[in-house]
């Protein structure tokens, strides 16, 4: 099987494909990976063949670099300029490659707009992988991006409908651009597309909006488990398969020099400290430690615990290490692999990135999610609904963190929730499952 992989140049969205690529290569399959040059060393280390982007978005070449998508206006601009706005270029890149040599399947992340349209135009099966909350609109589920909690009953279905329509208006320009790219490729219009100005949600096969347009109806490998998704009125799309955690430690990943102090290891190293471990990160995009890292250290500084901090930058790591504490030991670095960060953790405090949250839950670690930028509040609401932690949708101070941590420590429902979700993750292997499902897709396309 020869897989053509095209990924968005947002680091997490690209690198989360590694679990599938490693398993494909180990199984004897060939992977050609379409991505900007900055990712080529990591791609080659996995045994895949990297090819450069030409017309698709590349932050290192294009003006504007990496977009900030913290506010609604920034999200709309990011989709219009960098994601959907470059769909025509990505489609052209992918179509050129598909015409140059035969491929069995095209695999993309859900933000690689245009690649799936190229696959459809060339008659090649298209699969996607998801590394965030599932985009599959339903009357009973809160709209993605709003950070609203799940609630049952007709008032909340009305709420969902109104906010869905608002989302469609926000992405109306992107919806029209996707319709144009589809038409330019000679593909037939899909449901609702002709009335795109009046009904901007009708640009994909399900009529479910721009966000869902990046999800393949043929096969979607979702990096999660059913227990993190809300109850639905309608069944999930037939192509959705839950494959578990997508986390895979990058080959050659930097390990902090203090790591032996935070976990059992070589007897020659300093003995492992037995104090409770709190893992702390606010991701690689939110670099102001005043948002979460600083108030968390201040909140827990008087406790007899170890706080492991992945600060996202060397400057952030130094600033976090300089925060005074009375009893807590604080160990910081700019980057700490999630498996090392969470190995002995009894709590994970995070702004809510999907990969870190799902890896924590796969290990049975409760999560405190703080913030509402990007899709983080949606992730936090799923954590809270599944009884695996708490979510705070606002900027916080030390008192807020201390109160939330105290509440988590005495919440009896966490044990049952975490055990159930952990069991669902344990029953899944994203790499092996992804290979099997991709093979099934290509076999069915040939039969």
The low-confidence parts are 192-207, 264-272
Please give the domain count.
2
Q: Give the C-level CATH assignment of the largest domain.
A: Alpha Beta
Mean pLDDT: 89
DSSP summary: helix tally: 18
Tell me the total number of β-strands. Answer: 13
Give the proportion of residues in helices: 25-40%
Instruction: Write down the overall geometry.
Output: globular
Terminus-to-terminus distance: 15 Å
CATH superfamily of the largest domain: Glycogen Phosphorylase B
The helix-and-strand class reads alpha/beta
User: Strands of the biggest beta sheet: in what spatial order?
Assistant: 3-2-1-4-5-6-7
Reported by name, the CATH topology of the largest domain is Rossmann fold
> Main sheet?
7 strands, parallel
**What is the percentage of strand-forming residues?**
5-15%
- Architecture per CATH nomenclature, i.e. the level-2 architecture of the largest domain: 3-Layer(aba) Sandwich
Radius of gyration: 22 Å
Task: Please summarize what this structure is.
The protein is α/β, with parallel strands linked by helices. It has helices spanning 11-15, 18-26, 40-45, 72-83, 87-100, 115-122, 154-170, 172-184, 210-213, 259-262, 293-300, 314-321, 338-342, 354-362, 376-385, 398-409, 413-426, 430-446, and strands spanning 2-6, 30-34, 49-51, 105-109, 126-130, 219-222, 240-242, 277-281, 306-310, 329-333, 345-350, 367-370, 389-392. It comes from Kineosphaera limosa NBRC 100340.
